[in-house]
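I am still getting used to backbone structure tokens and would like to learn alongside you. To get us started, please write out a protein record for me. Once you have written the record down, we can walk along the chain together.
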Amino acid sequence: MKRLTLFALALLLLLPACAPQTTATPVSTTPLPVTVATATQTPDTSLTITDALNRVVTLPAAPQRIVITGKAFIMIADAAYLFPGATEKIVGLGIAGQGGNNFIALIDPSYTQKAILASDAGAEQIAALHPDLVILKSYLAETVGAPIEALGIPVIYVDFETPEQYARDLAIFGKVFSDENRAAEVASFYQTRMDTITQTVNAAPKPRVLLLYYNVQNGNVAFNIPPMNWIQTQMVQMAGGDPVWADANPGNGWMQVTLEQIAAWDADRIFIISYNKNPSDVVTSLKADPNWQALHAVQDGHLYAFPADFYSWDQPDPRWILGLTWLAGRLHPELFPGLDITAEARTFYQTLYGLDAAFFDQNILPTFKGDLP
């Protein structure tokens, strides 16, 4: 009995060793993908611009309702319309006239739908147009701009007074109108022509030049010279002339001079500017004046009426590049023998304003004034 028990116990111990071996299935340690909910991000539409006063202005988005106003606003508005998007975005303008002409009304098909503001329009009148941006000349920052900004309306200041400022302010407008490529194209148009003129006249003798603004004040005729830092003086220098009034006007505006001073300067070339009267008529009357007939420039046939179309070409308006081209041709005709200023003007209006030759011939050429063909 005892042997039987021992045998059974041995048999039980042998059974696990003889059983078939099984392999356990390994457990994967790779983590399962986990989906994490994330918040939807709103794209940043803000626009940051550094203006002519070196102020950093941040707008919540590209402006869609722009007002351009204030004194001398024509120069700003004409520069703004170099950008195709200006027509749609500008909702308010100053009175765009000089001598009874209105260029913007001619080229903007929606002009009659825009608000037209007086040059002294106050902040409340401007705010009533619900602008998301107001553009002003920088010298109006305190008198006009500050009250507008106090109402929470963004203001950007530009100058458009000198060739250097033109490049900078065009870049500002490139951001305002969301068209920086256009800003670069226009800046290149100006720079190329400036470089061509200055390089051509660089080594030429410089005739002595007098540039005069003719104006009638209280029935009295007045002749004025520009400051040295104004574009009129710079144009004379870039065109290869020597301004005889150098250092005579250290101020910030036109300075009246007497006929005696004009005679004392006795310049080789005299150019007459007139904003409210046809400069050709002014020159005709001066040539008939015995006092002017004594001047060498008049005797030699070098008294000229500075050209204009809708606006005079001497101003810091986009047309100043035409004035510079014409002036260089008058001072150095031997260096610009093939100059066709009408063709230059036609190219200017087509390239910068998108106006074709037919439009130019019908609407702009008939407004030519001054010593132009």
User: Anything to note?
Assistant: Residues 1-37 have pLDDT under 50 and may be disordered. The chain has two domains: 47-195, 204-367. The domain at 47-195 is CATH 3.40.50.1980 (Rossmann fold).
